[in-house]
């Protein structure tokens, strides 16, 4: 099947570039996370709240992936992180070569923590290694509570799950215990944070984890 062969070659090329990125970031003591979710789960707002809290103690760089527009990058920059926008012009995930190009635009000497905000999509971003140390999937209480069951690959390849918008739990049909159970059945090592970017609940725990991570042990 020629199609399968081509797809595998493309993924193999991506893997090589991702390894080069990982090596060069590690040599510079830069720790990297790749944040993924469906559209509207609150990745950009989570980053704003996170960067506002941490930008005085950490050098934070952000690579902001969007299909179109630079609205999110402008919000992130205003929160206090050096930001590069990638517009994929239709592509539904980021690839490692895009990260290489974006890194050339950042002053890496000032960065300890690199955050990549992927395109809102729970499917193919799971297949594309970007050279990150840790993958974070954001779920939110305004989505269905069957996301881990429907998109198991995303939860299998992530190390962290953040459940956002927990302030809305009283108003939505979202069974948090079910989501935890489903996610941990797929990936027993998944670390789970429950947060509200609106009220700030849970953000201290997440930011503490991220600070320790950025100092890299
Ligand atoms: Mg966004
Ligand atoms: Zn895609």
| Rg (C-alpha, Å) | 17 Å
Question: Strand-residue fraction?
Answer: 15-25%
Number of strands: 7
| Number of separate helices | 8
Structural shape: globular
Query: Biggest sheet: strands side by side, in what order?
Result: 3-2-4-1-5-6-7
Task: Supply the number of structural domains.
Answer: 1
Explain this structure.
- Strand 6, helix 7 and strand 7 form a beta-alpha-beta unit.
- The protein is built from 8 helices and 7 strands, in the order H-E-H-E-H-E-H-E-E-H-H-E-H-E-H.
- Helices cover 41% and strands 19% of the residues.
- The mean pLDDT is 95.
- The chain has one domain: P-loop containing nucleotide triphosphate hydrolases (Rossmann fold), CATH 3.40.50.
- By secondary structure, the protein is α/β, with parallel strands linked by helices.
- Strands 3-2-4-1-5-6-7 form a 7-stranded parallel β-sheet, sandwiched between helices.
- The longest helix has 26 residues.
- Zinc ion (ZN) binds next to loops.
